[in-house]
Design a protein that fits this description.
Layout: E1 3-7, H1 11-22, E2 26-29, H2 36-45, E3 48-49, H3 52-55, E4 60-63, H4 70-83, E5 89-92, H5 98-109, E6 115-121, E7 133-137, H6 146-149, E8 153-156, H7 163-191, H8 195-205, H9 207-220, H10 224-237, H11 242-259, H12 264-279
Helix pairs in contact: 1-2, 4-5, 7-9, 7-10, 7-11, 7-12, 8-9, 9-12, 10-11
Length: 280
């Protein structure tokens, strides 16, 4: 029975953990400092709390945390990884830029543990579905292939460390960037009194976009606090593209605003627009 450490039991991590458990893996996680909701998700998924030394004794360590926490997690686990007599393969599956994942790879490499760059594209696993897609890149991706036997749609992304993260940044930039653009323009229309006219125009001439916004805006609302640092990572990914960096830095600011108390009225306006789109 393979042992997989999945950190942490958030919405994605707990769903991935449940899928692995269902396919016969022993899944460890870290619950110190986690709230009641995280503990409940871990228990429901069949994940077992473990100390850092036990996490480092797993066959694979899957880091699935908010982008801002990815590097800190690697630093936290580094002493346990260095002390482990048998090193696990460390897969950073977070929404971070190639530069960030390069720093994380350096932290892990110093412990002697093999490192793979990872990217998760899609929603958390649901019963009866194959997704999400889990991409890995790096010098030796073979150890990660066991995840296919454990129910994950694992795919190898050609290239070294940074390739999978580049894919994630590009995909998330299009996907979540479009949601940000929609939020900006819908809120502008609502402030100008043109919201109903915009809704009618989208329904007539861009029904696929309207359907996407009707689903995507409510999905974004509880996740805006996590999407803000992801937009900052995408801005970093864009490097010398000054205009692109400016756009995604702005999107990061938008999501921070929507996640804060000051953004509650704007979230309410977006939810009204999305609800009206569903009823057309």
């Amino acid at each position: 029975m393979p042992t997989i450490a999945v950190i942490a039991p958030g919405a994605m991590g707990s769903a991935v953990g449940a899928r692995l458990v269902q396919h016969g893996a022993r899944v460890l996680t870290a619950l110190d400092g986690r709230g009641a909701a995280s503990r409940a998700r871990a228990e429901a998924a069949g994940m077992v709390h473990a100390a850092d030394a036990d996490l480092a004794a797993a066959d694979l360590v899957l880091s699935i945390v908010p982008p801002a926490d990815a590097e800190a997690l690697a630093r936290r686990l580094a002493p346990a990884l260095a002390a482990a007599p048998r090193k696990p393969v460390y897969i950073d599956a977070n929404a971070v830029s190639p530069d960030t994942v390069g720093r994380i790879a350096g932290i892990v490499a110093a412990t002697g543990a093999p490192f793979l760059d990872g990217a998760i594209l899609g929603l958390p696993p649901q019963p009866g579905t194959k997704g999400p897609r889990v991409y890995v890149s790096g010098a030796d991706t073979a150890p990660a292939l066991v995840l296919r036997d454990l129910g994950l749609d694992l795919r190898v992304c050609p290239g070294d460390v940074g390739a999978a993260s580049s894919l994630k940044m590009s995909y998330a930039g299009l996907n979540k960037g479009l949601t940000a653009l929609a939020a900006i323009m819908i809120l502008a229309a609502e402030r100008a009194g043109a919201g109903p006219a915009l809704l009618a125009e989208l329904a007539e001439n861009e029904p696929a976009l309207l359907a996407r916004f009707a689903k995507g805006l409510p999905d974004m609302a509880p996740k805006a606090y996590r999407w803000a640092p992801e937009m900052a990572e995408i801005a970093d990914f864009l490097g010398a593209d000054a205009a692109g960096r400016q756009v995604f830095t702005g999107y990061a600011g938008l999501y921070r605003h929507l996640a804060a108390q000051a953004g509650e009225a704007d979230i309410a306006a977006l939810m009204r627009f999305a609800a009206a789109a569903v009823t057309r």
